[in-house]
Amino acid sequence: MSNYVLNAWYMAAWANEIPDDGILARTLLDRKWVLWRERDGRWAMIEDRCPHRFVPLSRGKFENGRIACGYHGLTFDGTGACVHNPFGGSLPPGAGVCSLPVVSAYGGLWFWPGDRAKADPAAIPDFAFIDASGPVERATYVMGVNYELIADNLLDLSHAEYLHVESFGTNGSLFSHGAQSVEQDQTGAIWNKWDMTGAPPPGWASPMMPEGSSVDQALHIRWHAPANLALFIEMRPSGKAAPLVPPMANPHILTPETTRSTHYFFTHAPGEEEAAQARRVFLEEDEPMVSAQAEAMGDADFWDLKPLILASDKAAILARRKIMQLKRAEGV
Amino acid sequence: MSNYVLNAWYMAAWANEIPDDGILARTLLDRKWVLWRERDGRWAMIEDRCPHRFVPLSRGKFENGRIACGYHGLTFDGTGACVHNPFGGSLPPGAGVCSLPVVSAYGGLWFWPGDRAKADPAAIPDFAFIDASGPVERATYVMGVNYELIADNLLDLSHAEYLHVESFGTNGSLFSHGAQSVEQDQTGAIWNKWDMTGAPPPGWASPMMPEGSSVDQALHIRWHAPANLALFIEMRPSGKAAPLVPPMANPHILTPETTRSTHYFFTHAPGEEEAAQARRVFLEEDEPMVSAQAEAMGDADFWDLKPLILASDKAAILARRKIMQLKRAEGV
Amino acid sequence: MSNYVLNAWYMAAWANEIPDDGILARTLLDRKWVLWRERDGRWAMIEDRCPHRFVPLSRGKFENGRIACGYHGLTFDGTGACVHNPFGGSLPPGAGVCSLPVVSAYGGLWFWPGDRAKADPAAIPDFAFIDASGPVERATYVMGVNYELIADNLLDLSHAEYLHVESFGTNGSLFSHGAQSVEQDQTGAIWNKWDMTGAPPPGWASPMMPEGSSVDQALHIRWHAPANLALFIEMRPSGKAAPLVPPMANPHILTPETTRSTHYFFTHAPGEEEAAQARRVFLEEDEPMVSAQAEAMGDADFWDLKPLILASDKAAILARRKIMQLKRAEGV
User: Fold this and answer.
1) I need a labelling partner for C67 at 20 to 30 A (CA). Which of A61, A193, B144, C290 fits?
2) What is the structure's pLDDT at C174?
3) Chain C residues near residue B181 by CB distance under 8 angstroms
């Protein structure tokens, strides 16, 4: 079985990560790639590996939508075709490198590593909310664990009561006032919904409400295969329709770099403080824990380790199953 | 065959390494463990790995003899039983982690990784000498090699004439005036005894003795399986019964951390200078040499490398054979 | 198949790397060796691994052409024989370590790891040019890639137009005015010759020549198995016999340290600036590129990766074939 589902949209980068008139080199799904913007506005993504001596093309020279290998000068365009051989000899037919379809959507560049004929942009999950309620900063970093461990983390938000107790825990109301429901919608998404009803308001919200009143809170997460997630948070005074504060929605888009590392694409409100808060939650709270998990698991398969299954694991397990089904369907 | 003898007492830690009201997390025999002292004075040792997502429990919160996982809150007591599930659902019968019997003796905490029914504290080797002649400081560190290489080192003290020539070599008297004998005693211990008779006194001893007189010196080491060693040193004027200086006895207790690293438990006389001297001998003399040996051996089995056997190797070889016999007897 | 051709001369070191009355410890062809000069002027090369406990003998004490192990004192001479056992017992017949024939030539020490009976010094490739045109400094360093990747690099000098465009590229004249020929000579050497005819002179040469005149340039490289290379560069005004500047000849002698690292022996004109220039070309231009190649290839065999073959690769491919033939002939 392949390490990855191939007939699926993965995000390669935020579009603003690609320099004007330049390239971005990035490892995705265990292979090296180069991305750039063509003069006509379309995007190119070709394998970052010269077929002659296998060095990364990104070590070479990029000019006018062509990249010349820095070792012996073979030159490739955005389709991956070899368009120049300095020695003048004829090249074997088909000399070139792999290229992939890339589509821009929601500020991200999405690629399809599988069968090109099946690459339908309409299947890119809906992240229109990203820009819907004002400006955000798009950010990314690499987390040193397999993407499924991060998806597990996100699909069971109850961990916030332990791991994020200082940052965005809900003071235990998830356990005392929460109900969990797991759903699949018509887009194929799996949802894990925690709804806390009639809970005491968090400290910061108390001054905004009458004494003794309570809040209803929704903590919903949406997963599209392979690992494109979105988090939706709402809080309203109990029984009211209007939210207490504007609802929040955040992308948590995961793309495997390798089987042991993941590109994590997210957004945060503009500003240094918001960036630092996001880094703190991801880098100081989540990453050390999932890294410890990855280290403990070593090379073992998740199921072979016979994990103890809790009711709260339902969504994460459905997602893992879906990944397995998709891989099996691809017969790889 | 298992990497380790299992039906045996190993030392996990000096008792004073465990913080009051706290835990010690330590890798022993390739697995992670947490140790703490129960309120009734007994000791607890459970596997440091949550059965839910495999993260180390030691990353969680310890309180009142219970440890709550820092990821999703499953809570375990000193028997390894899961005593709290924040989600309230019932757990599968037997949900819990492995625990091991732990006994305190001679200031150390001894654990038995094998068949619990065979764990007889009377089989812990006698280290009563540790506190017999005044206060000592208990110390430990991790040496980056397999424990059998360190036992080999200790069981052939002739290396002192080369490796420790500056620190506690005997000026060649081991070869010029020494006789070696190897014995097994009724406790199952293997002894390697070097006795130097009528040798010139070492420089520091000369002023304490009549001109031209000589000394008899004993350099005895005792090994109990798997790798609990004790070193006994005596020096007396030749032919006299009374020692020239108080005899020395030192524990050298080795517990595998992994197949490539070892917890080394030892003692030294109190004080900074004595601690530095011990560190110098271990870290600057022994460790670089046994590390170079480990690097040279790589993944090869000791016997497959066809080592040249010298008469001085007898005790080390008996000890290696005993380990093999014990493993075979365990059928693992 | 062995990792290396064994019946061949490899260079172990420049003779001036061996300290007077001292030893040089070096890993060559995956094994550790010690080299020294005997009192009679001959050279000794024995395995750097005590047969007793496998530690490097080079950690011990060298004196009067004998080296005593630093662990337990077994002592070996330059033939590899064990000539002293401090315990006095008799040693098994043949106790000792491997030794290899070493011959000094052209300032280098050459060893023959294969069948000693076949070690004919006349087969050492001719590097007499090294000292022929004045003093040079002999230098060496370790490059972290397999030696065949470096030989590939040297056997296709067209890479100079890309990788060394700033240092010793020929301004594209290799492609515009060059012709390549590949030859084998009666010594078994493979030559890759680039001859540029009627090319515009490089910037530094223009002031030395009449306006509008052109130059002929030769860029010839010679390879002897396994990887002893020599580079010859000449430039003359077109049609003239006398060179414009003194011709250059440089050794590029490669000896595997391991399958992933190589001792690179070279020379440069005396002086700090020349040393810095050599380092820049090797360390800042060649090494990052071949390291990127090695990383991209991973553990895969070169041919299994189906490299695109260009006409310019002819010499490198002949050399790779020759290595394969030699290994096959050795039946290893």
Assistant:
1) B144
2) 86
3) none
Contacts of A308 in chain B (CB under 8 A): 51-52, 74, 91-92, 95
| CA separation for the pair A164, A153 (Å, rounded) | 12
Query: Could you report the per-residue pLDDT of C35-91, keeping only the tens digit for each?
Result: 999 999 999 999 999 999 999 999 999 999 999 999 999 999 999 999 999 887 778
Complete edge-to-edge strand list for the sheet that includes strand A261-268: A137-143, A261-268, A248-258, A228-237, A215-224, A190-199, A178-184
Sheet holding C66-68, edge to edge: C61-63, C66-68, C75-77, C82-84
Q: Do C162 and A69 touch (CB under 8 A)?
A: yes
Tracing tokens 């046994």 back to the chain, one arrives at B290
CB-based contact B293 C73, cutoff 8 Å: no
The 10 Å Cβ neighbour count of residue B78 is 22
Kindly identify which residue of chain C lies nearest to residue A73, measuring between CA atoms: C162
* Coil, strand or helix at C198: strand
CA distances to B186, B292, C75 from C56, in Å: 38, 7, 12
Distance CA B314, CA B324 (A): 15
Listed as ranges, residues in chain A with pLDDT below 70 are 1, 168-170, 332
The span from the CA of A165 to the CA of A170, in Å, is 7
- Distance from chain centroid for Cα B199: 32
Measured between alpha carbons, how far is residue A36 from residues A20, A24, A141, A262, B15 in Å? 8, 7, 19, 21, 61
List beta partners, residue A62.
Answer: A67
Domains along chain C with CATH numbers: 10-123 (2.102.10.10), 128-329 (3.90.380.10)
Closest CA to A54 of B299, C300, C124: C300
Residue C162 pLDDT: 86
Whole-number Cα distances in Å, B169 to A11, A238, B244, C63: 66, 81, 18, 20
Return the residue matching tokens 């960036």. A275
Is A73 within 8 Å of C162 when comparing Cβ atoms?
A: yes
**Distance in Å, alpha carbon of A311 to nearest chain B alpha carbon:** 7
Crossing angle of helices B287-297 and B147-155, in 10° steps, is 120
3-state secondary structure of C326: helix
Label residue A79 exposed, middle or buried (CB < 10 Å: 0-12, 13-18, 19+): exposed
Which residue type, as a one-letter code, is found at position A15? A
Q: How far apart are CA A178 and CA A199, in angstroms?
A: 9
Angle value at C-alpha A166, between A162 and A172, nearest 5 degrees? 50
Reported pTM:
0.93
Task: Quote the distance between the C-alpha of residue A318 and its chain's center.
Answer: 18
Burial of C7 (0-12, 13-18, 19+ CB in 10 A): middle
Joined together, the tokens standing for residue B260 give: 């490539």
Q: How far apart are CA C76 and CA C74, in angstroms?
A: 7
From chain C, the residues in CB contact with A86 under 8 A are: 158, 161, 175
pLDDT in tens, C302-317: 999 999 999 899 999 9
Q: Tell me: the pLDDT tens digits for C266-275? A: 999 999 999 9
DSSP A112-170: --S-GGG--GGGS---GGGGTTS--EEEEEEESS-HHHHHHHHH-GGGHHHHTTTTT--
Minimal Cβ distance to A310: which of B60, B68, B89: B89
Q: Is B303 an 8 Å CB contact of chain C?
A: no
Asked if C78 and C99 touch (Cβ cutoff 8 Å), the reply is yes
Amino acid A264: pLDDT? 97
Contact: B70, A289; criterion CB under 8 Å: yes
Q: Do C152 and A53 touch (CB under 8 A)?
A: yes
Are C53 and B152 in contact (CB < 8 Å)?
A: yes
Angle value at C-alpha C31, between C30 and C36, nearest 5 degrees: 130
Q: Residue C138 is encoded by which pair of tokens?
A: 């002999």
Helix axes C314-329, C147-155, angle to 10 degrees: 140
